[in-house]
Amino acid sequence: MATLNQHIMSRRGFCLCCMAASTVATTSGWLSPRQAFAEARNIVDLIRDDAAKAPIKVHKLRGNVSILEGSGGNIAVLTGADGKVSIDAGITDSGGVSSGPKRTRLRRRSECRNRIPLERGRDRLPGFAADLVRRGVSVIVASTSPAVPVAKAASSTTPIVFSMGATRWHLAMSPA
Amino acid sequence: MALGYVASLSQPGGNLTGVTTLNVELGPKRLEVMHELVPTTTVFGLLVNPTFFVQSEILSRDVQAAARSVGLEIVVLRASTERDLDAVFANLSQQRVGALVVGADAFFNSRSEQLAALALRYAVPSIYQYRPFAAAGGLMSYGGNIAESYRQVGVYVGRILKGEKPADLPVQQFTKVELILNLKTARALGLTVPLTLLGRADEVIE
Predict the structure, then answer these.
(1) What is the DSSP string of B28-73?
(2) Are residues A95 and A112 in the same domain?
(3) What total of structural domains would you count in chain A?
(4) What is the pLDDT of residue A163?
(5) Is residue A150 part of a domain?
(6) Interchain pair A172, B23: CB under 8 A
């Protein structure tokens, strides 16, 4: 004897009773596709909300360097007489944790290194450099040979400090 | 061939200054150190990234000249993607390459662990520029101290934030080099590190 728990399957293997239940749910207003989509929140909003609630622990390293541990990646902070420098690759809301008479934020755009292979990431360097200039950073640090010409092309006024393997003739117009 | 990033090293001018470490100049020296460790090997591979054509050509020229002077043969191997790296290592034995010198390059820097793993898998004694290669299981590294150069970058950033101009801060070149040996890898490859090399190592990873 067939029990009530048995599902009625279509010729192609779909469960007809589940399909009927889904149709009722969506058309009767319980969970319309539009509402379901509206309920879904993007990952940045979720991170921001979580960051706003999460406690921030301060770990002193050495000298005047500390690490702020929050809901996401850690933020390094250098404290000095002029204010604080925070190195933060996170989203913008994290900036609220730092304050002082003079605050300079260094945006680290080499974060793509861990996610995008360098051979593809190189194409994105001009965009990253332009973004840094647009944000009005105080200094751009250009690490490795590919980043230096890109940073130089992005701005002729923003100070750039590079670190690269290079010969002296490689760098200078004249080896004075 | 000069790139002209700065007007001069003592007074860079413009908005750019920084720190350099020795790079292609150390290619022949890496070959010498590797040859000291595997004296019976006569065919060495030189891995370069053709994306940076000028740099890879200069390195190839210098290392080949050094190899000729001591009767060694160099096979130049080119890689600019992860897939290229796999293919290069897979073909080493076919090309009779007994040891590998990895050219200094930003792409190779970012693939230190992959390079070390491939060298171990194919049992090829290899030398690279920076410590992370040896720390990841590569046999040796010989090059500048990257942590020290980044520290100096931090000092320059601090001075600029305090009001100094990059145009007035001379480009600094670090000439200190360090030799890092991974003895565990040496043992795995069946190599005996000569005392003369062991004594010169700045760090030995066991």
Answers:
(1) HHHHHHHHHHSTT--EEEEEE-TTSHHHHHHHHHHHHHHHHHTT-E
(2) no
(3) 2
(4) 87
(5) yes
(6) no
| Smallest Cα distance from B66 to chain A, Å | 18
pLDDT of A111 over the 70 cut: no
Chain B 109-168, CB below 8 Å of chain A: which residues?
Answer: 109-111, 129, 143-144, 146, 149-150, 152-153, 156-157, 160-162, 165-166
Tell me, yes or no, whether A31 lies in a domain. Answer: no
Q: Do A175 and B156 touch (CB under 8 A)?
A: no
A60 and A88 share a domain?
A: yes
Domain boundaries, chain B: 19-147+173-190
Q: Is the pLDDT of residue B89 over 90?
A: yes
B66-80 per-position pLDDT tens digit: 999 999 999 999 999
Give the distance from residue A55's alpha carbon to the nearest chain B alpha carbon, in angstroms. 29
Q: What pTM value is reported for the model?
A: 0.64
Range in A43-52, B20-29, B178-187 with the lowest mean pLDDT = A43-52
ipTM: 0.78
- The structure tokens 């933020």 sit at A75
In CATH, the number for domain B19-147+173-190 is 3.40.50.2300
Distance CA B175, CA B190 (A): 33
Span B128-173, pLDDT tens digits: 988 989 999 999 999 988 888 889 999 999 999 999 999 999 999 8
Q: Do A176 and B171 touch (CB under 8 A)?
A: no
Of the candidates A62, A100, A109, A58, the one whose C-alpha atom is nearest the C-alpha of residue A81 is A100
A87 found inside a domain: yes
Q: How far is A49 from chain B (nearest CA, A)?
A: 33
Contacts of residue B17 in chain A, CB cutoff 8 Å? 159-162
Find the domain containing A158 and state its range: 108-176
Whose tokens are 């740099």? That residue is B55
The burial class, CB within 10 Å (0-12 / 13-18 / 19+), for B45 is: buried
Tokens of B81: 């993607």
With respect to residue A26, please indicate whether it lies within any of the assigned structural domains. no
